[in-house]
Amino acid sequence: EGRVAAGEVVQRELKVAGIEFTPGLAGGTGILGFLPATEKNAKTVALRADMDALPILEETALPYASTNPGVMHACGHDGHTTILLGAARALKNETTRRNNILLMFQPAEEGGAGGRRMCEDGVLDGRIYPAKADVAYGLHGWPMGKEGVFGVKNGAMLAATDQFVVTLQSPGGHAAAPHLTADTIVAASQIVSALQTIASRNIIATEGFVLTVTYVNGGNALNVIPSKVEMGGTMRTLTPESREKGKQRFFEVVQGVGRSLGVDVSIEWETGYPVTFNDTWATDRYRRIAASVIGEKRMQEESAPVMGGEDFSF
């Protein structure tokens, strides 16, 4: 819709549908809609959609492709937002509603923890509308799955996500005289290799653990050992034990290898999203109701968690 932001579209559509809402949440672009129950002593159900995009150029040529160069809904959040707006319209048109409905349109899922900001602003605890959430539901489009099939899993569904940046420093020197300095490139190479032993030798294989170095930057000449190398990446875990152990071993490995090779090491560690863990009661309820509506054949039990992360976990 030209260069109209997703939040503006959501507000416009909620107005058209006659649904009460509060904008300006989670730093400015979050929105909470509210549909009160028509019965007394009602429970409250919260439904969530994330709205943000990613810094990727869209080249799909689809009718709904991004009109903002260099930004696209590569993770399907435009679909999530559309689904929740459709649900809002349908629920608004119900003559009776057994539950209060909170419609959570959140920004900044892609690394900004907008879900946490929404919670801090009171979307679930009754501070904005007189309805404290009893249960919350979210969803995610899944392009690897079959069209029209709904996946579900009790327990851990998506991983906890932590990020790191490591900086290696030394005096640097001439490539022909490596004995006169500590080599940051060699140190970075050995650290990348050594980090792989955390998953293979320190974490129980059945717990689910991924540690990936995603970039290494350093040097710009063919005959110079650089004085600085920076590397970064992510750790994904499914249990508190593997998360704690993984972080501990990360620091030990990086600092130990750096020390052994004579380079100075600094580590920036960012604790990210918690594990997205599906509550048994809520998931079983969804499973029963969805199967009765769309049929058992379109329901798929997911056998294992996905190591991606989701700030719906907050």
Descriptive overview:
Helix content is about 30%, strand content about 25%. The chain is built from six helices and 15 strands. The chain has helices spanning about 5-15, 75-90, 115-120, 185-200, 240-260, 280-295, and strands at about 20-25, 30-35, 45-50, 100-105, 135, 150, 155-160, 160-170, 175, 210-220, 225, 230-235, 265-270, 275-280, 300. Strand 1 and strand 2 (about 30-35) form a beta hairpin. Helix 1 packs parallel to helix 2 (about 75-90) and helix 4 runs antiparallel to helix 5. The longest helix has 21 residues, at about 240-260.
Output the keywords:
alpha+beta; four-stranded antiparallel sheet
| Residue-averaged pLDDT | 95
Gyration radius, in Å: 24 Å
Q: How many H/I helices?
A: 6
User: CA-to-CA gap between the ends?
Assistant: 31 Å
Oligomer: single chain
β content, as a range?
25-35%
Poorly predicted segments: none
Helix content: 25-40%
Q: Classify the secondary structure makeup into a structural class.
A: alpha+beta
Bulk shape = elongated
Total number of beta strands = 15
Secondary-structure element order, N to C: HEEEHEHEEEEEHEEEHEEHE
The biggest sheet, with number of strands, parallel, antiparallel or mixed sense and barrel status, is: 5 strands, mixed
**Widest sheet, order of strands:** 1-2-4-3-5
